[in-house]
Amino acid sequence: MSRRRTVKPWNQRLAPYLFIAPNMLIFGVFIIYPALNGFVVSAYDSNNGRTFRPVGTDNYGNLFSDAEFWTAARATAVFVFAFVVLCTAGAIGLALLLNQRIRGRAFFRAVFFLPVLLSPVVVGLLWSWILERRAGALNSVLGADIPWLIDGKLALGVAVFVGVWTHVGFYTLITMAGLQGIDGSYYEAARLDGATAWQRFRFVTWPLLRPTTLVVVVLGLIAGFQAFDFIYTLTGGGPLGATTLMVQYIYEHAFRSPIRYGLAAAGSVVLFVTIFALTMLNFLYARRREAV
Amino acid sequence: MRRAPSTGKVLTYAGLIALTLLFLAPVVWTALSSFKDRTELAARPPTLFPQSFAVENYTEALSRFDFTVYLRNSLVVTVSATVLTLAINAMAAYALAKYNFRGRDLLFLVTLGTIMIPLQIILIPLQQVASQLGMTNSLLGMIIPPAATPTGVFLLRQYMLTIPDELVEAARIDGAGELRIFWRLILPLCRPALAVVTIFSVIWRWNDFLWPLVIAQSQDLYTLPVALAQFNSEEVVPFNYILAMSVVSMLPVIIVFLLTQRHIVKGIAQTGLR
């Protein structure tokens, strides 16, 4: 941008504001205002969704003393951690595979992207059907009797797997774009120095891919904390709440009788603060690594 | 160069084929099973290929349930929300990429920040806003609130930054108005990025579940995913119909993807998503 101080005609001064206005209006009304209002709602209690009265921080007190909240929080923590790690590692692995000179690259790329296209509701249905204990295809093929969706720990693992299965194709695409941005001369230099494939990955790909990895980790974190729809049709949150994550906990308190808006809003605030803090930590970490 | 395939190559292909099976088999099996009748679906062990080839699953699902209504709702929401998203995201991106105005950096920061506020997190206050605006139980309520996407603005802005400013200046000297420059010059140049935003918007809107579920109180406003999930949890609909509906719900996005897929990789590679 030039720093000339020319006086622009009025239409050029006004135009950007008019261009940005519709988007900002919707952001304001449907994202920013509700986000701020969430803090307000969390300070009120309601009588099954009607007649609100201020209760200060009571909702947070009730939230933190609710055993179901802690079950959901723990399940969410386990889910998000495993989801982010596996998605990031999977995306890098798949992107490296697809970045080689192979036949049918477009085909493989489309295959891994296929689950991204599917409705999470359908994804949940599909896997619940495959993993069904008695009539499911997997146990039939394995000739086993594994209670995939009936055992709590196993079910949470299945939820992680299905989540990764659904999302990893998208992160692979981003990672492939990142890989293509790395200058080929680095690899040639490394090869001339006699670096092995592992050394080329460790000392060229890995550091130069870091900005892409950061994007994948942050998007993965946000997606992980949002997970709900495919779990809803996969396990319904069961068995015994083992796969009820925070979004489902919030949804059930907000829209299922007895409606407890305040408690649900308090849960949303906790979730928002968690996502915000973790995202910021990631960016701070990335910045510090750059400074070193 | 012609030589025997190295072990590395063999391993690569073996890995790719195994992974392809993992990603493709569940979907193919679902598609095949949607042609099985109810006895065959309940068979143990399950069959791979349909013996019965029950096309009735499709025809009856269409006629016995308000399936066409859900299909139409999904279509209306997806198409109009995507058009709206493209229009307002592109306009906002243009302002952020090609104008120097007071408050620009702040507005860009606000845009980026909203990525951290997914709809799931603001569900309750958002539902309250929608209900105050009389948007609950209407298709409009499904279309408008999620239309402004931070990802779309970001992708389009990054792409527009690669368009030289001189081009815009030249158009101005030729006497083109601001709107005309945007419409006739910028938008055509952004086609790859617009394709990426289109496909993502179609995927998100078509498959969206939680927000339509919250907004649609009456059954005649259900979109496909909402209807599928409700039927599945209530078990009022035989599973062979649910499967047929699932397959129909997969098809449109898969077709859109196949039509636009070469733009997607190129678009992402050229925009700032890295």
UniProtKB/TrEMBL annotation, chain A:
Name a GO CC annotation attached to this entry.
Answer: plasma membrane
Q: Which domain of life is it from?
A: Bacteria
Domain named ABC transmembrane type-1 is located at: 73-282
- Give TM segment ranges: 14-36, 75-98, 110-130, 154-174, 208-225, 263-285
* Membrane-related topology note: Multi-pass membrane protein
Record-stated family = Belongs to the binding-protein-dependent transport system permease family.
The name on file for this protein is Sugar ABC transporter permease
Q: What organism does this protein naturally occur in?
A: Lentzea guizhouensis
UniProtKB/TrEMBL annotation, chain B:
Q: So where does this one cross the membrane? A: 12-32, 75-97, 106-126, 138-160, 181-204, 241-260
**Its Gene Ontology biological processes?**
transmembrane transport
* Designated name of the protein: Sugar ABC transporter permease
What does UniProt give as GO cellular component? plasma membrane
Task: List localization entries.
Answer: Cell membrane
Q: Which family does it belong to?
A: Belongs to the binding-protein-dependent transport system permease family.
Fetch the CDD domains from UniProt: TM_PBP2
**Residues of the ABC transmembrane type-1 domain:** 71-260
Q: Please verify whether the record's keywords include Transmembrane helix.
A: yes
InterPro entries assigned to the protein according to its UniProt record, in alphabetical order:
MetI-like (IPR000515), MetI-like_sf (IPR035906)
Keywords (A to Z) from UniProt: Cell membrane, Membrane, Transmembrane, Transmembrane helix, Transport
Q: What is its main location?
A: membrane
Q: Which Pfam families match?
A: BPD_transp_1
